[in-house]
């Protein structure tokens, strides 16, 4: 009986950590701000819906469409960075997070996000994550 209870407790502990294992997004996508072109805002909204559903490739296409419609759409760049982060493409994620920060100076949702902190700091000096750093040769 004690073994069954222990097994149930362990099972509950692991099920509570599902978001940590990469089975779902940990970061929150950003909505389009007021004044965003309608086509770009609609693509971003659909991308956000797909992102929350874990449909990374489809979300990526929507964010790319939003950026194509409005190249200066910082939130779409940020959201696209989140997709690349989920796809484990750190180099491309970094590119879009930095672009979002450059397009939206002072935007707290972007600048204070854990995603950007991983790739750059408040002084705009990009920081390379350990897995992208060159291996020192001895």
In short:
The chain is mainly alpha-helical.
Can you walk me through this structure?
The chain is an all-alpha fold and 138 residues long. Helices cover 58% and strands 0% of the residues. It contains seven helices and no strands. Helix 2 (38-52) packs parallel to helix 4 (74-86), helix 3 packs antiparallel against helix 4 (74-86) and helix 4 (74-86) runs antiparallel to helix 5 (90-103). The relative contact order is 0.11. Mean pLDDT is 78; it is low at 3-23 and 121-138.
Strand content: under 5%
Give the terminus-to-terminus CA distance: 57 Å
Which residues form runs of ≥5 with pLDDT under 50? 3-23, 121-138
* Assembly level: single chain
Structural class: mainly alpha
Number of discrete helical segments: 7
Overall morphology: globular
What is the N-to-C order of secondary-structure elements (H for helix, E for strand)? Answer: HHHHHHH
Task: Please describe the biggest sheet, giving its number of strands, its sense, and whether it closes into a barrel.
Answer: none
Provide key terms for this protein.
138 residues; mainly alpha; 7 helices; 58% helix; globular; disordered N terminus; disordered C terminus
């Amino acid at each position: 009986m004690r073994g069954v209870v222990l097994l149930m407790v362990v099972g509950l502990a692991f099920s509570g950590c599902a978001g940590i294992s990469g089975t779902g997004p940990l970061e929150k996508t950003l909505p389009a701000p007021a004044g965003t072109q309608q086509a770009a805002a609609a693509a971003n909204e659909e991308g956000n819906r797909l992102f929350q559903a874990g449909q990374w490739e489809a979300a990526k296409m929507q964010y790319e469409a939003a950026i194509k419609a409005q190249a200066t759409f910082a939130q779409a760049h940020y959201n696209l960075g989140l997709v690349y982060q989920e796809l484990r493409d750190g180099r491309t994620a970094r590119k879009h997070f930095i672009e979002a920060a450059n397009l939206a100076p002072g935007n707290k949702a972007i600048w204070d996000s854990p995603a950007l902190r991983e790739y750059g700091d408040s002084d705009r000096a990009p920081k390379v994550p350990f897995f992208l750093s060159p291996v020192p040769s001895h």
